[in-house]
Specification:
- By secondary structure, the chain is α/β, with parallel strands linked by helices.
- The chain is built from 13 helices and 10 strands.
- The longest helix is centred in the C-terminal third of the chain and has 16 residues.
Length: 329
């Protein structure tokens, strides 16, 4: 395993990590999640990602049960949770969502209970909250750090301007600023990582824990001939993801990418994950497997990453045609 510093922080994360979105409690049970987390850990993975909203809290409970059963040295791995959407779904009432001081602190306590943990290594604001002052968010996260309930805090899908505002507030108040952002990043979603965030990477050294390196499975090629039963795009309630992910043009690109993967004697999924690791601003890429063979194959991305020459990367660019255009100043 390769370990990368989370931006300019001192924390080291495995270049490949394991997350629970969609899968835990929806697609897999305790036995399978125990097995998958064990395989990941044995391969050097030291970061496990979660959130209050995943399976409405059941995902964190499942991960908590697995971690308790594993009894790994707590200092050998990092866990995260994210706050914003709440876990009660349609039953959410005022102050049970968003980034108010009340919800952030109460959600942190609930996440710790579900994960059966004394502290969270990373605690992320799952989305920006237009109704909560960023100063309130910064001061609340700083309080949780001072209390030892979280070690680092960050954002997910915030704009570069919002992240910079949080840093300026933290600097003015002499508080701890966010040190990590969790954006979507893959061969189809590149704008934030390759254009929008360049200034925050350069000026404040944000780390990233990228999600959906396979574009919700599209870059695995499994949707080329329809939506398989049991796949995440077939799950009730995820119709929005299907509508956003699938298109004829994307299927064509994936089919062409599969030819490059075949020439490298690897899968299109493994190649797609390896491509993400070529971005030096990626601290870790979160995997989300449901089967042992799938996870083991995805973990081979580190081997493929080491073989990706400039020539191969240019072939991928020519195939995908998704490189965002940076603004000229």
């Amino acid at each position: 395993m390769e370990y990368r510093r989370m931006g300019r922080s001192g924390l080291q994360l495995s270049a490949l990590s394991f997350g629970s979105w969609v899968t835990f409690s929806k697609q897999i049970d305790d036995a399978i999640s125990d097995r998958l987390m064990g395989i990941a850990y044995d391969h050097g993975v030291n970061f496990f990602d979660n959130a209050e909203v995943y399976a409405l809290g059941e995902s964190e409970k499942m991960m908590g049960r697995v971690l308790k059963n594993k009894n790994w040295d707590r200092t050998s791995y990092t866990i995260s949770s994210k706050v914003f959407f709440g876990w009660r779904g349609k039953e959410n009432k005022p102050n049970q969502t968003g980034l108010s001081r009340k919800h952030i602190i109460e959600a942190c306590h609930e996440a710790l209970q579900r994960l059966q943990a004394d502290y969270l290594d990373l605690y992320l604001c799952h989305r920006p909250d237009k109704n909560a002052p960023i100063e309130e968010v910064v001061t609340t996260m700083n309080t949780l750090i001072q209390q030892g309930k979280i070690l680092y805090w960050g954002t997910s899908e915030w704009s570069a301007a919002e992240i910079m505002e949080a840093h300026m507030i933290a600097k003015d108040l002499n508080l701890i600023a966010p040190s990590v952002e969790q954006p979507q990043y893959n061969l189809f979603e590149r704008q934030k990582m390759e254009v929008d965030y360049l200034s925050i990477f350069r000026n404040i050294g944000m780390g990233t824990t990228i999600w959906s390196p396979l574009a919700s499975g599209l870059l695995s090629g499994k949707y080329n001939n329809g939506i398989p039963e049991g796949s995440r795009l077939a799950i009730e309630g995820f119709e929005w993801l299907k509508d956003r992910t699938l298109s004829k043009e994307r299927f064509t690109s994936v089919a062409e990418l599969a030819k490059i993967a075949a020439a490298l004697n690897t899968s299109v999924a493994t190649l797609s994950i390896a491509w993400c690791l070529c971005n030096p601003n990626v601290s870790t890429a979160i995997l989300g497997a449901t089967k042992e063979a799938q996870l083991i194959e995805n973990l081979k991305a580190l081997e493929v990453y080491a073989t990706l020459t400039t020539e191969i990367l240019e072939q991928i660019e020519a195939c995908m045609q998704t490189k965002p255009v940076a603004p000229s100043f």
